[in-house]
Amino acid sequence: MRILLAALNAPKGDLDGNLASHAAMLEQARVQGCQVAVFPELSLTGSVDPRRHPERALTVDAGPVGALLEATSRTGVAAVFGIAERAGPLFHIAQLYGHDGRLGGVYRKRHLGEGEEGYQPGHDTGVFQLGAARFGVACHARRLGVPVAMTTQAGATEDEDFPGLAALVSPDGQVARLPDWRPGSLVVEVAADVTVHPVREAVRCLLVDPAGRALLVRYADPRAPASWWGVPGGGLDPGEDHLAAVRRELREELDRDELRVGPWIGRRCHTFWLGSWMTQRERWVLCRAEPFEVDPAHVSSLAAESIAELRWWSADELRASAAVATPRDLPGLLDRVARRDLPGPDEDLGV
Fold first, then answer.
1. More confident position, 152 or 339
2. Which of these, 330, 307, 311, 308, lies nearest to 319 by C-alpha position?
3. Coil, strand or helix at 155
4. Has residue 164 got a pLDDT over 80?
C-alpha cells in the first residue's frame, strides 16, 4: 500500500482554502499512485477554541466534510483528515476516514492541552480498512499489528497557523516522517496488500468515434454515494475468455454485435467499495466505430445492471465537467488514442 503523508497549513476559519488544499493533495496522491492520503489533525477546520468559537467546529455530516468525501471519489484516493468536531454539546478532535465518496470511519482522540478543556475524550480504536488492508491513526503499531499513520495537530500560536507533523510507524517500529514543521508531503510504502480475494476478472471496451469521442456508460448503483462514467464492459462468465466477454458485453449493453474490436490497450486493477470491498482486474480493448445511438428502451432495460445513461464524450468535455470518470485520467487516455500513441497491452491505466 502506498500512502501520501501531507503536512498542510490549516488557517482557522478558512474552510474553502483548506478544502482546496486537501483536493489538490489528493490529486497529487493520485498522480503518484497512492491509495491513501493522510492529513494532520484539524486539517480541514484549523485549530478551534470550543469555548470562544464553537461555530468553527463541524459535524461529520457538514457540507465541507461531504465535499472532501466527494473528492475521494473524484480522485480514487482515500483520505484521513482532521476536524474539530461538534457532536451536540461535546467537541472532539476527530480524524475522519473517507473513501469512494463515503465516510468509512471516525477516530475521536482525547485531547490533552492546558486551556482546551472544552474537548472531550474519545474511545475508538483508530483502525480503518482499505480493501484487505488494515491501518491505524493512533499509537501502538506493534500491539495492533498494523501500520500507523501519525498526523499531529495542525494548530496555531497566537499569531500564526502551522502544519502538523506527518509520520508513519510500521509494526516493527520503523518510522518514516517529514523532517520538521514546514508544509510538505512524503510518499511511503507499507507491506499491506489492499487486494481482496477472489479477484473479479473483467474486460472493458473503449469505443471511440472518428471525432475522438468515447461512448461512456453512467453507472448509478444504490450502494455508491454518487454515479460515475465508465466504458462498456463487465465481469467474465465462468469459462469465458476476454474477447468473448467483450463481444457479449457489447451485445448486452449496446445491442450491437457487428463492432470490430482490437487491439488490447492496457490493464487496470482497482479495489473499491460497493456495499463491500472488492478488487477487479480489467483488460481493456479499443474499438473504433462511427457514432450511433442506443435505443432508449434498451438502455432502460439495463437498470438492473445499474446502467442509467449512455452518451458520447470528448476529452475536453470530460475535463470541463464535474463528472467522475474511471479511470480518472480517461481524458488523457482519449488524447493518446487521438495521437495514435496507444498504451501497450500490459500498461497500467491507473485508478
1. 339
2. 330
3. coil
4. no
What are the backbone angles phi and psi of residue 272, rounded to the nearest 5°?
Answer: -150, 170
Torsion angles phi and psi, residue 111, rounded to 5:
-110, 125
Structural domains of the chain, with CATH: 2-189 (3.60.110.10), 200-338 (3.90.79.10)
- What cell does 250 get? 457489447
Length of the chain: 351
d(CA 212, CA 337): 8
Distance CA 139, CA 127 (A): 10
Q: Calculate what percentage of the chain has a pLDDT beyond 90.
A: 65
Give the integer Cα–Cα distance in Å for 23 and 29.
Answer: 10
* Higher-pLDDT residue of 346, 148: 346
CA distance 264 to 169: 41
The burial class, CB within 10 Å (0-12 / 13-18 / 19+), for 159 is: exposed
CB 42 within 8 A of CB 83: yes
8-state DSSP, 343:
P
Grid cell 499489528 in the structure block, residue: 145
Q: How far apart are CA 13 and CA 36, in angstroms?
A: 26
DSSP lists the bridge partners of residue 186 as 5
Closest CA to 131 of 70, 171, 76, 172: 76
Q: Is 190's pLDDT higher than 90? A: no
The SS3 of residue 169 is strand
Read off the pLDDT of residues 290-303 as tens digits, 9 standing for 90 and up: 999 999 999 999 99
Average pLDDT, rounded, for the chain: 88
pLDDT band at 192 (very low <50, low <70, confident <90, very high): confident
Give the three cell numbers for residue 321.
Answer: 465537467
The torsion defined by the Cα of 7, 12, 13 and 17, in degrees rounded to 10, comes to: -30
SS3 string, 37-65, reads: EECCECCCCCCCCCCCCHHHCECCCCHHH
Cell 473528492 appears where? 71
Q: Which residues contact 269 (CB under 8 A, 6 or more apart)?
A: 195, 199, 279, 280, 281, 282, 348
Q: Is the pLDDT of residue 159 over 50?
A: no
116 pLDDT higher than 80 = no
